[in-house]
Amino acid sequence: MTQGDAMRRWVLAGLVAVLSLVSPGSARAQSPKADPPPKAANDQATELAKQQQNPIASLISLPLQGNWDFGLGDREATGTLLNIQPVIPLAISRSTNLILRVIVPLASQPGSGDVRVNGFGDVVTTAFISPANSGRVIWGAGPVFLLPSATNNALGSEKFGIGPSVVVLTQPGPWTVGVLANHIWSTSGANDREDVESTFFQPFVSYNLGAGLALGAVLEATANWKADEHWTAPLVFSISKVARLGKRPVNFTVGAGPTVASPEGGSSWRFRLSAAFLFPR
Question: What CATH class has 36-279?
Answer without folding.
Answer: mainly beta
